[in-house]
Records
---
Amino acid sequence: MADDSTVTIRASFSTREAADLAVEHLVQQQGISRRDIFVQSATDENTSGSMASGGDASHDEGTRDDGALEGDIEVSVDITAGQIAAVQGILEDVGAIRVSKG
């Protein structure tokens, strides 16, 4: 009998770009509903990550400094126990700094 209990997986990313990529991969590769995926600051500060990326990193005059780079971005996802290994693999493949279950 398959284990269909719900588990929450959390992953931290240093850029919003990597967090967004994680969401897209979870939806497209695992068929997880977007309503089961949550993106937020990993700290109490408003942040777009701890490192510049995308438009912040490729500005004509160098790296922009007007974005809040106050900490990592956390992606959490509610999945069935049978999806744990695949989801952890996806999160690690797209650049998660830390992945935890709980």
---
Amino acid sequence: MTTTDANGRYAEVAMTEAMRHIADQLDVPSHDAQLLRLTNNAVFALPAAGIVVRITRSTVLHDRVHKVIRLATWFAERDAPTIRLAPQVNQPIPVDGLLATIWQYVQPTEPAPTVEDLGQILRRFHNLGAPPFPLPAWDPVADARSRLADAEALRDDEADYLLTWCDRLAPRIAALNERSKGKLVHGDAHVGNLLRTPAEVVVIGDFDPTCEGPWQVDLVAVPVGETRFSRRGAHARLAHAYGYDVTQDPDWPTLREARELKMVCAAVPLLASAPGVAREFRTRLRSVRTGDQHARWTPFADLQQAGGTR
């Protein structure tokens, strides 16, 4: 079995084949499999089997897989408000050079989770403290630089500006991390990563970006989204539910810049293959370069061929 297509990419058909191979190994049905996500990971729900299969789409993500397993095990021991690994499965499962993790399936239940749920979940999550094993440090600049190094359709002036931005922001990130040692950060805290269970319990998932750093990072996406996506009201509700207004934090300018750097650079690997994303990337970059806080951005996921990038 092979999981790569003719272009060397991990395509949907190949990931589906890999998922069915794993289901056969586990001796569980996969006739009702549903593809939930196809980004850095291919995520499939298998409701009849009561599991979710999550397959990495790159060998460079293997370290993350092992980190996620350790975190999920620790979260379960602490009875944290998180999704759970499937019991009695040796994790991870290798599949054609990639790694898969198996999770308990959560039947989505109405009403959908809210930003108030996010605030309450994050308070519990941050109160867990740091786990008794090392986590990577929060480093949005390193992530941005890695995306820029892989760019194919980035103009020289754009690359120069973004690299200079990284250089300018890096020492501020390092200083903020130094003051925030030992703090648990989810790393991608948004309502889309929440699930409400049939027992009316809200849990959070996706621990790939979980790290150590300033806990305030997890409160930044909502207020930045209000400004850039012209959304109103959610930040006030999040601040009330969590009990803290991150926009009043002394480090808010650095936190906001770090989030915007991520929101701009997320598109860089897709510039050559997704024209809509390329146009939106340049809208975002132009507004940052000119200091225009009123320019409206469009979520990448709303654009055709966006490939699930936010």
